[in-house]
Structures are given as structure tokens and as C-alpha cells.
From TrEMBL:
The modification 4-aspartylphosphate is found at residue 59. One of its GO terms (biological process) is phosphorelay signal transduction system. It holds the Pfam family Response_reg. The keyword Phosphoprotein applies. The keyword Phosphoprotein applies. Residues 6-128 form the Response regulatory domain. This is Response regulator. PANTHER family: RESPONSE REGULATOR RCP1, RESPONSE REGULATOR RCP1-RELATED. It comes from the Bacteria. InterPro entries: CheY-like_superfamily, Sig_transdc_resp-reg_receiver, TCS_response_regulator. SUPFAM superfamilies: CheY-like. Keywords: Phosphoprotein.
Amino acid sequence: MSVSGPILIVEDDKDDQFITLEALRELGVNNQVLFFENGPQVIQYFSSTTEQAFLILCDVNLPLMNGIELRDYIDSSPELKKKAIPFVYFTTSGSAVMVNEAYKGSIQGYFQKPQNYGELKGRLSSIIEYWKSCLHPNTFR
């Protein structure tokens, strides 16, 4: 994990993409933000770059490959798993069934997106600050 690396946001809703980007910019987050609308796009990105991402914020409900399937794919790939990029769900889906399903895999958090913009900014701030201060295997590379 490189704290200056890009933040990968896997979100198929354009309005949510816009609001999330606005919130990150208002928070003063200077990382490049890359948007992907589905899991296969993320996999393609990883196959075409050597850049070390800072964080993955992923919706659960996605076309082609949902967020849980994407995380499972990353975990099953030794090369991608070795990148040790924090994988955090940031989604409107907050059901007990979905949370339990997500935690069957190795994830670093599950956050429900608040409807209130101020709360959304606060939640994003907490996630970003936590991972910026957290020691991680890639901290030492």
C-alpha cells in the first residue's frame, strides 16, 4: 500500500461516483481517484499496471461480478493478494445477510453509505485517515 497511490472506487452508479469524488476533494484527499463500474474492469487495471494502489472502496451490488466475487478473485490470485491493498466495502447495502457474506472473505471493513452528505464525508475521512496511519506490509517496500 502506498499512501500516495490511487484510490480505486468500484461503483457503477454515476451519481455515487460524483458525490464520493466531491467529498474526497472537499476533504483535501490528493490521491488520484480511479473509478471502475465492475469487477472485470478492476482485474484488467491490475493486469496492466505496476502502480501500487492505496485503497479499494467497493460497492457490493455491481454488474458482471459483484463486490464479494471481486474480493474472492483478488484473494485467489497470489499476485493480486501479494499487493496487500486494503479492500473496504462502501455500499448502500447494509443487510445482516450481506455483511455476514462479506465477512466470510478477508476484508478490511464494511461501511454503509450514509444518505446525509456530511455523514458521508465523515465516514470517508475516517476510512482514509485510518489507512494513512496504519502500518501495512507494503509500508516497508
